[in-house]
Write a structure and sequence with these properties.
Length: about 90
Amino acid sequence: MSNKTEIRYLSPVDIEKRKQNKYCRFKKMGIKYIDYKDPDFLMRFLNEQGKILPRRITGNSLKFQRRLAIAVKRARTIALLPFVGDNLK
């Protein structure tokens, strides 16, 4: 504190470093078919209440997000996944 005219600021947070690149897992892994009979795989795309996570969070492409939604709904219909879950995970 020898010089009182010296003002120090915190460096601004670099937004680009904090932002994670989203990518479609299905395109990257080469998955062409989403199996509705695999509940463990489908659970990755559900939140604690059993709702399907949106594209902006998962990073899926529109085509695969639609296929994922259909697969989850089919799994719910044949009772592989619950419609409503209190604590799924």
